[in-house]
Each structure stands twice: as C-alpha cells, then as structure tokens.
UniProtKB/TrEMBL annotation:
Cofactor: binding comment: Can also use Mn(2+) ion.
Pfam families assigned: ICL
Keyword Metal-binding: yes
Domain of life, per lineage: Bacteria
UniProt entry tagged with the keyword Cytoplasm: no
Stored InterPro entries: ICL/PEPM, Isocitrate_lyase, Pyrv/PenolPyrv_kinase-like_dom, Pyrv_kinase-like_dom_sf
CDD domains: ICL_PEPM
Name used for this protein in its record: Isocitrate lyase
Natural source organism: Halomonas urumqiensis
Entry annotation: catalytic residues: C221
A Gene Ontology molecular function term of the record: metal ion binding
Cofactor names: Mg(2+)
C-alpha cells in the first residue's frame, strides 16, 4: 500500500472511533508503518528467501550475476555495510550478509574468545541474526525518517513538485534488509538439536542455513587440522531436519547450503551402514584406509573388519577410535558428498578448500555438474588464505609452465614487498581482482563471501587509531584519521546521535506529546556542527 493510500485508510479507521482517537494523526501512523516494514523475523525470512531464489535463477541464466557478502559480527557492522552499499552503488541487489560461526565463537560467546569448534552457546547464533535484522530495519527507519522530514519541509514551503518527488521516493524505498547466509556449524548435536536451532534461526529471520558434514562434537574450523566427517546418512538426516524447520514455519523457499570439509578431512567417526554393494554406505566405506586380510589370525583384539570391494579389509583405526581415509581420496569424497547432498534436498554447495584456485574448484564442480547440471557453490574467500602469496605463486607456476624466465623471482619469498611493483606482482593482483568473476564463470560459484573480514578491519582500524592517539599525534589521530574522513567521504556516523536514532525519537516524542515534547535536536545539540 502506498503512503497516501495508507493515510486514507487510517483516516477512515480514526473517524470510526468517533473522536476517541482525535489525537492520533493518520499521517504519523502511516509514516511509522512505512518505517517498520517487517513486523517479524518470519516476514524477513519469507521476503529474503524469494530474493535468493530469484538471484539463483538469474545466475543460472547469466553467471556474471553472482552474489556477494561480508561476514559481520555485530548488528551495527552489518548496518553500516548495507548503508555503504546503497550509498556507493544505489542498490543492495545481489549483496547479502554472512553470519560466521567463527566470529560468533571468537567475539560473541559469554565464555570469551573461543576457537571455531562449536563450543560457544548455540543460542548466540539466532540472537545475532535477530540483532543484525534489528539494525538493518533501523537503517530503513533512519533513511525514511530523513525523507519524511524533507517531505514536511516541502509541504510547509508549498513546494508540491518536491513533495511528490519525495512521496515517490518513500513509496519506492529499497530496504536495507537482505538475505543472511547463517552458519549452523555441524548442527550443535543430533538431528533433533539441529532442527530446534534451525527453527530459532528461521524465526529470527534466516532464509538460508549453511550446514557442514563434520562431527558436531569434534567440529573444527575448515582451515584447521583434525577434521572428522560423518557418513552421508547422518548428514542427510540433518539436511532433512533443517528442511522440516523451514516448512513448518511456512518458509517454502528456504535455502540450505550443504558444506563438505572432505577435501581436508582425513578421518571419520563412524563406519557407514551398508546393506548391499554399491549403496551409499558402501561407497563411503570404500574410501577407508586399511589392509586386506586372508585369515582370522590376521585380526587382533579390537580390530574392525569390513568387506570392501569384495575383500575383507582391516580398517585403520586410531587410538582416538576414529577411522582413517585413504590418502588422496579427498576430491572424490567431495564430489560424492556434493552430488548426494543435492540429490537429497540441499540447494547450494560449499566446498572448503585450502587455497583460492579457480582450476581446482572447477575440476570438482565440473564432475558434480556431470550428474547435477545446475549445481552451484557458495565459496569462502577466506582470510585464512595468504591471497598475495597464493596468487603470486600461481602466476610464477603459470609462467614457468609456459617456459618464461622466472629466475628474478624467489617462489618461496614472493610475499616480499619488493615484488609489489613487478610484472609478476601486478599480474597476481589482477588475477586476485578477477578471481570472483572468473570463478563465477568457470567454477559454478553463485555466492562469494569473506567469512571474517570485519574481525580484521576492526583490529586494523583500532591499531591505526591507537598508534597515533597514544603517540605523538594525540587528538589529531582521531580528527584526521576518522572524523575528517567521515565528513569528506559522507559517512553518516559522523552524526552519531542521528545514526543511533535521536531524530526518530524526537519525532516520536512530537507524535505522542505534541507541542509539549522535550526534544534533543534543538539549537544546542552539538550535532549541528556537522551541517
């Protein structure tokens, strides 16, 4: 409903109260409604799920239409990211938020900083989703509040053309609310626990949940050693649990991202259940490392024996009780994981790799697409990669394969600043710049994200400020490095009172109290120094 139509409907509603609502302004109510478009988390999940589905279809038609996100660990960070995107690009189209389990563990746990091993409180995840959307909705209210104030000024001045222009901007306002891809780790327990947590996340607004195939109580960061995967039947039960949660809550377009850590995982907790040769359990077990036995005397106390490819094999079992996969089987296991997940309810894939290499990712995706042609990836452009060194070494290797003279470069030392201005360094930067475009086109990557960039930016900016402020620069470090840049670059937070909602609060006071309102935004408010 348009702003003007809402005013008309509210006017009729007020008149029906026969004077009891005489102090209620239909214009003010319509304004408040416009500034609070989403009433519940489920409204958000339903709205954003459709965005993701439309974006997935657009990517299938044109791989240049890939999507992106940055991981945010606080609602304010997510809010400022989306405000920045609207300011610089005019639209939030194909830009999402990512909720990283790593950052929840490191920054949001009541235990203090924790490693990414699912030790943090699982309720922190839906709480952060709710917080992010609270701040995004506040960004809508903040932006619209300025439009409504401008509209009041235009109406007071009798500038009808300007008023009509502002009403059109209000009616066509693009929300800051965008999809969040939310990390549920390995589900924080069994399938029932996964379902319960998924339901909380969806109720908070999540339209997309990312689930990984590690053992929940042995979960490791995707870029650490010691990862342990589960048989497919265990993982598929959790995919089903998430889908049931979406459907129960009426989010029929909910998106599930199935993540496989098999490329870097050499261990499994269980031997899969198998009923006949070639079934899914048998395929999983075929990757287990072991030695063939020919007699019962080959079996020692505590050994486990399975039938593998028609032979009796004593599988390699570690002191931890975990079983070891055959070396070099990671990529084959990834492909089987991905095909199985897509054929059993997942919508998107996540392949955790050890480096950003388009050819490596494409080699796996092409095998998956031989079976599931529309397979698409969410890919972690991880800060755990040394991007500079990786791409410089990729250029070095490519040149060496072409027969180009690389004697001027030390492959192991390519991180050095001495290579920044070289032909190799500049080409590596170009490859890095093009990585997302190339991988979207050649390796089926629908969504590119950086899991924990704002963890690093917060540390870097704080270091820069602390170095100057507590050193010789003193107050100039803040003024020159922060405030002056905010003013000149149009960063809205320079008026921090307004960003935090003081103008919205003042307007509400006037709605509620009329002329008796005690407002904060008068002539003595120092925010006026910023124009």
């Amino acid at each position: 409903m348009s702003y003007q139509d809402d005013i008309k409907a509210l006017t009729q509603l007020r008149e029906a109260q026969r004077g009891k609502w005489a102090s209620i302004s239909p214009e003010n109510v319509a304004r408040m409604r416009a500034q609070n478009r989403f009433k519940t988390g489920l409204d958000i999940a339903r709205y954003t799920a459709k965005i993701m589905r439309d974006d997935m279809a657009a990517y299938d038609a044109d791989s240049a239409k890939y999507t992106q996100s940055l991981g945010c660990w606080h609602g304010f960070i997510g809010q400022q990211k989306m405000i920045s995107i609207k300011k610089h690009f005019g639209t939030t189209e194909r830009r999402y938020l990512y909720l990283s389990g790593w950052m929840v563990a490191a920054l949001r746990s009541e235990f203090g900083p924790l490693p990414d091993q699912s030790m943090h409180e699982k309720t922190t995840v839906p709480s952060l989703i709710e917080e992010l959307y609270t701040f995004l909705r506040q960004a809508d209210a903040w932006e619209l509040n300025h439009l409504f104030r401008d509209l009041e000024e235009a109406q007071k001045a009798g500038d009808n053309a300007r008023a009509e222009e502002l009403i059109a901007s209000i009616d066509n306002h693009e929300t800051h609310v965008v999809p969040i891809i939310a990390d549920i780790d390995a589900g924080f327990g069994n399938a029932e626990a996964t379902y319960l947590l998924a339901r909380k996340m969806i109720e908070a607004g999540a339209c997309c949940i990312q689930l990984e195939n590690q053992v929940s109580d042995e979960k490791q960061c995707g870029h650490q050693d010691g990862k342990v995967t589960v048989p497919h039947e265990d993982f598929l039960a959790k995919i089903n649990a998430v889908r049931y949660a979406f459907l129960e809550l009426g989010i029929e377009d909910g998106v599930i991202v199935a993540r496989t850590d098999s490329l870097g995982a050499g261990l499994t907790q269980k031997i899969a259940v198998t009923k006949e040769p070639g079934d899914l359990g048998d395929q999983y077990n075929s990757f287990l490392d072991g030695e063939e036995i020919t007699a019962a005397t080959d079996i020692d106390n505590g050994d486990v024996v399975i039938k593998q490819n028609g032979k009796l094999v004593k599988v390699k079992r570690l002191a931890s009780g975990l079983y070891q996969f055959k070396p070099g089987t990671g990529e084959d296991r990834v492909v089987l994981d991905c095909i199985t997940s897509l054929q059993n309810g997942a919508d998107l894939l996540w392949i955790e790799t050890e480096k950003p290499h388009v050819g490596q990712i494409a080699s796996m995706v092409n095998r998956i697409r031989d079976v599931v042609p529309d397979a698409k990836l969410v890919y972690n452009n991880s800060p755990s990669f040394n991007w500079t060194l990786n791409f410089r070494q990729q250029v070095f290797d490519a040149w060496q394969a072409e027969g180009k003279d690389v004697s001027a470069y030390d492959r192991a030392g390519l991180m050095s600043a001495e290579y920044d201005a070289t032909e190799l360094g500049q080409l590596a930067d170009q490859w890095t710049r093009d990585f997302q475009r190339d991988a979207a086109r050649e390796a089926g990557i629908f969504h590119h994200l950086i899991t924990l960039p704002t963890y690093h930016t917060a540390a870097l900016s704080t270091d820069n400020l602390a170095k100057g402020y507590f050193g010789e620069e003193g107050m100039l470090a803040y003024v020159e490095g922060v405030q002056r840049r905010e003013l000149r670059e149009g960063i809205a937070t320079v008026k921090h009172q307004d960003m935090a909602g003081s103008n919205i609060g003042d307007d509400h006071k006037e709605f509620f109290h009329g002329e008796a309102a005690l407002k904060a935004g008068g002539k003595d408010n120092t925010m006026n120094q910023f124009g």
